[in-house]
Amino acid sequence: MKQFKNFIAGAWVPPDSGEYFENRNPADRNDLIGTFPRSGASDVNRAVESAKRGFARWRATPAPARGDVLRVVGDLLTQRKEEIADAMTREMGKPLTETRGDVQEGIDTAYYAASEGRRLFGHTVPSELRNKWAMSYRRPIGVAGLICPFNFPLAIPTWKMFPALVCGNSVIFKPAEDVPHTGTLLVEILLEAGLPPEVVQLVHGTGEEAGSVIVEHPDIPLISFTGSTETGSLVGATCGRMHKRLSLEMGGKNAQIVMDDADLDLALEGALWGAFGTTGQRCTATSRLILQKGIHDNFLGMLVDKAKALKLGDGRKSGTDVGPMIHEAALAKVERYIDIGQSEGGDLLCGGRRATGDGLDNGDFFEPTIFARVEAGNRLEQEEIFGPVLSVIRVSTADEAFAVNNDVKYGLSSSIYTSNVNVAFRALNELDNGITYVNAPTIGAEAHLPFGGVKQTGNGHREGGWQVYEFYSETKVGYADFSGTLQRAQIDNYLGSPD
Ligand code: UN1
Fold first, then answer.
1. Strand 410-411 with 200-202, pairing
2. How much of the chain exceeds pLDDT 70, in percent?
3. What is the pLDDT of residue 94?
4. Ligand 1 centroid to residue 283 C-alpha, Å
């Protein structure tokens, strides 16, 4: 059994507390992967001091050279894709097909970041005065604190870390305590690729003991957090008080709409993948299915048959469709929502309980669950469950479907299946989400497009694509006057007087 370390001040070191937590395989709790540092304030403080030195060096490295390091990171991730996918499945459960996709998203993000090192555009615009240049350009900000979730153990840290690094910041990375091994592999790869050691710091531990210290540290001006809306609110309060730049990526209650004119087989595959992929533990998971009345009964019948046939199991074994949930507390939360759904009068058509037997007894498995006749406005329909629970709502018209989609406090992704081009474009226009898919499920965002949601899903920032580079850099404006005279903006006028 291996005891893992933090990476602070250029060295792999134990936590000051001397205490460690266990990392176990959620498909088999007897499988202990290793123990990881329980870090606290003194570890974070040393990481910050080192990251400040790393920042001084890294900001002076030209952006194209910073990008070159990320290109090597992409190459190394590609070479080690299978090994990382296996480690990831072992510590968080989703099947290998999905963890390979997770690594691929990191690879895509690395190559995108590498090229962005040569493209951190600013603007040059005409000055209103003669012989004067006006331009805007980007500067790095400082030490970035990155607090990451368990469900995309590689991809989401890369969404944050790679643009932060290309923009010239140094980073303190706290992986979720459920997936510290994947986080460790990522940092090993960054170092192997040639990142100067003090530019990255890896601090393991819990949100309460390590994450909160990062958020509250006065020398970390930049925080990126992905996780629950409740924790995000606490992070937001602190960052607001301390005037920190903050990107929040939080909950979702994403809906797939299926209209009467949809390709039903396609919509069926989409619903299964969206609702039960990653065991429903995605911010973008489909947790509501809005069915138009003409296809409602038929579609539901097909869906329940398919959901019952999904094979639960160890994600490292071939044939597994759905892996375990991340831990016991997540299972218990889903169970509470099963009770809520039943007390609200929902019709439990399949699942609704822990899955046991057939090699599942040592893991945290829950059966894919479908509730029909869920009323818009019910708690089951409104609150994020983060598990394999799909609520089905029956509607009559597109207008009603759109209203149901929009009437929740979250706004990450949505999807519509229809063959009517006008309804499809209306959906793109009218659904209140950061991402809307037409004839595709609510999951499947690509690394080179902005990712994020409206309303209480986020705070207006985006990850991925070109937009995240704005978050990790500060815009500065430079004016250079080479006229040799005092020119006064807004006052001197070169058009001459009207007469
Ligand atoms: C998340 O849902 O937590 O869109 C991230 C997707 C992935 C990223 C999802 N590329 O499904």
1. unpaired
2. 99
3. 98
4. 7
According to the model, what pLDDT value does residue 329 have? 97
To test ligand 1's pocket by mutation, which of 88, 152, 412 has the most ligand atoms within 8 angstroms of CB? 152
DSSP of 83-139, one letter per residue? HHHHHHHHHH---HHHHHHHHHHHHHHHHHHHHHTT----EEEE-SSTTEEEEEEEE
pLDDT at 116 over 70: yes
State in Å: Cα 411 to ligand 1 middle: 14
In total, how many domains does the chain have?
2
Strand partners, 36: 21
Residue 186 near residue 158 (C-beta atoms within 8 A):
yes
Mean pLDDT value of segment 340-368: 97
Residue 464: pLDDT above 70? Answer: yes
Assign 3-state DSSP to the chain and report helix, strand, coil percentages, each to 5.
40, 25, 35
350/302 Cα distance (integer angstroms): 12
Question: Ligand 1 pocket by C-beta < 6 Å: which residues?
Answer: 105, 151-152, 282-284, 443-445
Q: Which two tokens stand for residue 123?
A: 């603007």
Range of the domain at 132: 6-250+458-477
234 and 262 assigned to the same domain:
no
Catalytic residue among 148, 239, 283, 350: 283
Nearest to 275 by CA among 289, 288, 286: 286
Distance in angstroms (rounded) separating the CA atoms of residues 155 and 387? 20
What is the dihedral angle through the alpha carbons of 372, 229, 7, 84, rounded to the nearest 10 degrees?
20
Residue 482 falls inside a structural domain: no
For residue 430, give every residue at least 6 positions away whose Cβ sits within 8 Å of its Cβ, in sequence order, or none.
402, 406
Same domain for 225 and 300, yes or no, is no
Q: Does the residue 453 lie in any domain?
A: no
Residue 249 appears among annotated catalytic residues: yes
- pTM of the predicted model as reported, rounded to 2 decimal places: 0.97
Q: How confident is the model over 305-346, as pLDDT tens digits?
A: 999 999 999 999 999 999 999 999 999 999 999 999 999 999
Atom nearest to 151 CA in ligand 1: 3
Residue with tokens 């990107």: 247
Rounded to the nearest whole angstrom, what is the distance from the C-alpha of residue 44 to the centroid of ligand 1?
29
